[in-house]
Amino acid sequence: MKSAHILLLTATMMLPLGGCVIKINGDDRESDHGNWRSIQQSNVQRIKLLELGRSLSSIESEFGTPDIVESFQRDGNAYKVWFYRTQHVNSDGVTRRDETTPLVFIDDELVGWGETAIDKATR
């Protein structure tokens, strides 16, 4: 009888906890989505400190994978434009070009950033 009483008491105490869920860590996509502000702020600060002539690999090591990548070849040179998120425009969960700053590389060397760099590289 005492065992049945303890079992009933334990079950009664656990019943309110049945709907509780504790989320310790989400998947990477969720944490990146929730962390866009700090990534964006970090990108802005890093871009302020950029120096021309840096290698593509050193930029990738510092900034991580770009949000958008474009590339083309002209006159025997390989052009790459990497876009990193630097400003918030829409809360749609998608990073678009108007929310980024472009970094322009010719033959894997940083030659400029911003829309002016794209204009000069594509003339």
Task: Give the helices and strands as they follow along the chain.
Answer: HHHHEEEEH
Helical content, roughly? 25-40%
Portion in strands:
15-25%
Please tally the β strands and state the result.
4
Q: Kindly provide the name of the CATH class of the domain at 51-123.
A: Alpha Beta
**SS-based structural class?**
alpha+beta
Counting copies of identical and different chains, the oligomeric state is single chain
N/C terminus separation? 89 Å
Poorly predicted ranges (pLDDT <50, ≥5 residues)?
A: 17-31
Largest sheet: 4 strands, antiparallel
- Compute the CA-based radius of gyration: 25 Å
Q: What is the name of the CATH architecture of the domain at 51-123?
A: 2-Layer Sandwich
Average pLDDT, rounded to a whole number, is 82
Number of discrete helical segments? 5
Q: Please state how the strands of the largest beta sheet are arranged side by side.
A: 1-2-3-4
Q: Might you state the CATH topology name of the domain at 51-123?
A: Beta-lactamase Inhibitory Protein, Chain:B, domain 1
The coarse overall form would be elongated
Protein name: DUF3192 domain-containing protein
Pfam families: DUF3192 (PF11399)
Organism: SAR86 cluster bacterium
